[in-house]
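Researcher: Sequence recovery benchmark, item below. Answer with residues only.
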């Protein structure tokens, strides 16, 4: 009687061990898959971040260039208005005569 009980316990323990082992293996596989997915996504995010930084750098440089160009264009406009003002004064003096 005791021998049958111990044999049953041994079979149940072996089944439990096998189930736990297969569950642990499945979790390991799932963990590896999750790590691979994380690596792929993080590399994609890093690429996106680098690309975003590059785009921001280009935008910043363009804005700085626009500030210099705007300053120069206002100076050129002032020069043109000053030159046109002299021409207008001379045209008005010719017209009055």
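Model:
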């Amino acid at each position: 009687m005791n021998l049958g009980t111990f044999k049953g316990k041994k079979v149940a323990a072996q089944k439990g061990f096998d189930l736990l082992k297969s569950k642990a293996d499945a979790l390991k596989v799932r963990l590896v898959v999750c790590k691979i997915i994380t690596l792929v996504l993080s590399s994609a995010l890093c690429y996106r971040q680098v690309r975003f930084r590059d785009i921001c750098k280009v935008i910043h440089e363009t804005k700085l260039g626009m500030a210099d160009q705007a300053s120069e264009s206002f100076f050129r406009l002032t020069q043109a208005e000053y030159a046109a003002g002299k021409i207008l004064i001379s045209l008005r003096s010719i017209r009055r005569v």
